[in-house]
Design brief:
The protein is an alpha+beta fold. The protein is about 25% helix and about 45% strand. The longest helix is centred in the N-terminal third of the chain and has 20 residues. The radius of gyration is 23 Å and the shape is elongated. The N terminus is likely disordered.
């Protein structure tokens, strides 16, 4: 029974880890890039983005004060535009929201991308100090044809059955 309980806990953790890993952090795309009076840092997750899957963008906005210190920018308006190469009519514009609990200057946005290929990603920031933008190109991969979560669940079910029957004691037959 302990083995079965352990396998169920592992299955639960495996299904929850994808959802919790999606917010905040990720793969760096821009690092300390000038955007008007600001400096932008941008991360994407999951890695890689796939057609039909979630695309998450985290943005950190900073500026340099009069003393030369880097400070986070609060209360900024951040828009993230994702446009498939050669198809500006299919652009997606996200209004990034402040990240709760991450400290000042962090914003994020989520969407789903409809097609594989090259996408232009532009981050626009506007605040009291001014406005600026920066961007990068991201290669979106084709959607996954394999449902890994289904395969994982099936494998865990087989292991649970094998573990159950493997731990049963065989009574010796009377002679």
């Amino acid at each position: 029974r302990a083995m079965l309980a352990s396998l169920l806990v592992l299955a639960l953790l495996a299904t929850m880890s994808g959802a919790s890993a999606a917010h905040g952090g990720g793969t760096p795309q821009l690092s300390d890039v000038p955007a008007g009076p600001f400096r932008l840092f941008v991360w994407t997750s999951p890695e890689p983005w796939r057609a039909g899957g979630e695309a998450h963008v985290t943005v950190a906005v900073t500026s340099i004060d009069a003393a030369g210190q880097t400070i986070p920018v609060e209360g900024a308006t951040i828009s993230i535009e994702l446009m498939p190469a050669g198809a500006p009519e299919r652009a997606i514009v996200l209004a990034a929201t402040p990240v709760a609990g991450a400290g000042a200057g962090f914003y994020e946005g989520d969407t789903s991308l409809s097609q594989a290929g090259e996408w232009d990603v532009s981050v626009k920031v506007s605040a009291a100090a001014g406005a600026g933008d920066a961007g990068f190109v991201y290669q979106v991969m084709p959607g996954s044809q394999i449902n890994w979560l289904l395969w994982l669940g099936g494998a865990l079910a087989v292991l649970a059955v094998v573990g159950y029957f493997g731990t049963r004691r065989i009574k010796p037959s009377p002679a």
